[in-house]
Amino acid sequence: DHDGAMTITCKSGNTQITIRTEVLTDANGNTIKASAFEGKTIDVKGVVDTYDGKCQIILLTMKDVKIH
């Protein structure tokens, strides 16, 4: 999104998972871009919500994601 929030589509086995982020920043206050997640395996802890009738995980902070 133009403000820095993102929708990330992930796959776990044959299941597609949508992760919606708030604007995420690193320790220096720089906005995290989608490229930080592309092609990587991530572990996410977030809030489960629905949007347009589909489940998604809301990621609020980089403290709740581990990038492998």
Mean pLDDT: 92
Spatial order of the strands in the main sheet? 1-2-5-4
Number of helices: 0
Helix amount: under 10%
How far apart the termini lie comes to 24 Å
Strands, total number: 6
* Radius of gyration (Å): 12 Å
Biggest beta sheet summary: 4 strands, mixed
Strand content: 35-45%
Fold and architecture overview:
The protein is globular, with a radius of gyration of 12 Å. A hairpin with a 2-residue loop joins strand 4 (47-51) and strand 5 (54-59). Helices cover 0% and strands 44% of the residues. The mean pLDDT is 92. It contains no helices and six strands. A four-stranded mixed sheet has the order 1-2-5-4, with no helix packed on it. The protein starts with 6 loop residues before the first strand and ends with a strand. By secondary structure, the chain is an all-beta fold.
Which properties best describe this structure?
68 residues; mainly beta; four-stranded mixed β-sheet; two-stranded antiparallel sheet; 6 strands; globular
Short description:
This protein has 68 residues and is mostly beta strands.
Topology record:
Layout: E1 7-12, E2 15-21, E3 42-44, E4 47-51, E5 54-59, E6 65-67
